[in-house]
């Protein structure tokens, strides 16, 4: 089992959770502390756990979610 602890904008986290649910992605997501960052945006600590064999699938889906959320695609 691989784990990654990251910080994520709350709006992005909501989009990511929706993508995980809609696509049945093999990743367990736990959220931690929320705070306002230096730009006044809401940031959330996130722990993602997934099998090493699913890493490319999970990271590819996260990348696509980020691009869509940021309006890059």
What's this entry about, in short?
By secondary structure, the protein is α+β, with helices and mostly antiparallel strands. The chain has 2 helices and 3 strands; from the N terminus they run E-H-E-E-H. Strands 1-3-2 form a 3-stranded antiparallel beta sheet.
Strand coverage percent:
35-45%
- Count every beta strand, where a strand is a DSSP E run of 2 or more residues: 3
- Average pLDDT, rounded to a whole number, is 96
The backbone outline, from C-alpha atoms, is globular
End-to-end separation: 31 Å
Largest sheet: 3 strands, antiparallel
Spatial extent as radius of gyration: 12 Å
Reading the helices and strands in chain order gives EHEEH
**Can you tell me the number of structural domains?**
1
Q: What is the CATH T-level topology?
A: Alpha-Beta Plaits
Uncertain residue ranges? none
Q: In CATH's first tier, which class applies?
A: Alpha Beta
Relevant CATH superfamily: ACT domain
Structural commentary:
The protein has two helices and three strands; from the N terminus they run βαββα. With 73 residues, it is α+β, with helices and mostly antiparallel strands. The protein has one domain: ACT domain (Alpha-Beta Plaits, 2-Layer Sandwich), CATH 3.30.70.260. The radius of gyration is 12 Å and the shape is globular. The model has no long low-confidence stretch (mean pLDDT 96).
